[in-house]
Amino acid sequence: MDQLKERPKEQPKELPKELPKELPKEPPKEQLKDHPQEQPKWHYVPQRVFFEEEALAYPLGQQIVALCRELGLPTRQIPSHNRVTGLPGDTPNQKYAQAKKTLVVGVKRDLRFPTCRPSADYQFPLMTSCPGHCEYCYLQTTLGQRPYLRVYVNVEEMLDQAAKYIEKNAPEVTTFEVASSGDPLSVEHLTGSLFKTIEFFGSQELGRLRFVTKFTGVEPLLNARHNGHTRFRFSLNSERVVRDFEHRTPPVAERIAAAAQVARAGYPLGFIIAPIMVYPGWEEDYLRLFDQLKKELASIQPLSPPVTFELIQHRFTARAKKVILERFPESRLDMDEEKRKFKYGKYGMGKYVYPDETAKGMKDLLQTALLERFPDAEVEYFT
Ligand code: SF4
Predict the structure, then answer these.
(1) Degrees (nearest 5) of the Cα angle 246, 177, 164?
(2) How far is the CA of 130 from the centre of ligand 1 (A)?
(3) Which residues form ligand 1's pocket by a CB distance below 6 Å?
(4) Mind giving me the DSSP string for 135-195?
(5) Taking a C-beta distance cutoff of 8 angstroms, is the pair 19, 65 a contact?
(6) Where is this region: Disordered (predicted)?
């Protein structure tokens, strides 16, 4: 633990040679095509990488520059990680797909961490977005015109700030959520930031970390000194929802296999079942999912501390519906306002959720089914 407390500070180093301000006119397509085959499955390889100049002064910025050179990825220097222009694509659908192929490397300047209810006390945004194309994703609206992937290089500064939050809140335990604005595991092979963050929280008596992922590249994290302070959660859904709406994400069976690896490494384990959707046969599909999960985790009993479940019904806002239908014109997502209940939120904004009776039936069925299969589990909430 002492070693962890004495983490070396990120010292700005001499800037490497400036990166080009423009991408090459002809990206090396033949090289790019080969990368997915060279990479382990589900390892994201961007097609272009943009750097803020200031990011180049950090070791992680330099590490990513070196990786881009090794992979032959086109790079460009940009003035701000919030202003990315000139991405290819004519339609919203094409622009979205191209943004997801773009990695932006920047410095997080605002180190105030927003609150993060109900999952944690504060957000800890190491990155934003992810390579997935889930149609229902709440980031469709929260990231707005910035669906590109963005990683921050000043991780040490963020950890120092987290330590201050934890100290201020002592003797209470303070919990941070890494996945509030993206899927941090999806870029871990490029940054190593999650490993560093997990080890930092492993050293914090009063600090806890949690994140959720749909991705499966867990190997680099299995040996992290987590000290039981990080809850590793996987997002699961019925086979049909995954097939129809969670494009470019690993199949459920692979997520569950990754969860078993994580549980064997001693991490507190959790699952988010979301978004729960009602369609003909939904009950059987979700119960089948729970059976599959029980079977895979059976050999790791007892799961200690108990596994947690968070249950979230599908919801959408008027704005989300508009963006989703622009980006996925053929979407089969059920967003019929007539069949939903409008729930008012902050500032007069609101969302469409299932009617009370449907939501109650959903909660009762799934909660009971989970506790039958995992009697020691904790269902943290249904919303
Ligand atoms: S994997 Fe998660 S963050 Fe990524 S698109 Fe799907 S729901 Fe959104």
Answers:
(1) 160
(2) 6
(3) 130, 132, 134, 137, 139, 182-183, 214, 249
(4) TT-THHHHSTT--SEEEES-HHHHHHHHHHHHHHHTTS-EEEES-SSB-GGGGHHHH-HHH
(5) yes
(6) 1-39
Q: What is the spatial distance between Cα 253 and Cα 211, in angstroms, rounded to a whole number? A: 20
Selection from 335, 330, 285 nearest residue 315 by Cα: 335
Q: pTM of the prediction? A: 0.91
CATH code of domain 108-132+152-382: 3.80.30.30
Beta strands 308-313 and 269-276 are parallel
Q: Which amino acid is at 148?
A: Y
Report which ligand 1 atom has the smallest distance to the Cα of 235.
2
* Four-residue CA torsion sign, 28, 92, 132, 99: positive
Ligand 1: nearest atom to the Cα of 214: 1
**Tens of pLDDT, residues 209-259:** 999 999 999 999 999 999 999 999 999 999 999 999 999 999 999 999 999
Atom 8 in ligand 1: residue holding the nearest Cα: 137
Determine the residue type at 111: L
- For Cα atoms 370, 375, 377, give the angle at the middle one, nearest 5 degrees: 70
**Atom 3 (ligand 1) nearest CA:** 182
Decide if pLDDT at 278 tops 90: yes
Angle subtended at Cα 258 by Cα 31 and Cα 288, rounded to the nearest 5 degrees: 120
- The enclosing H or E element of 37 equals helix 29-38
**Average pLDDT over the chain, rounded to an integer:** 91
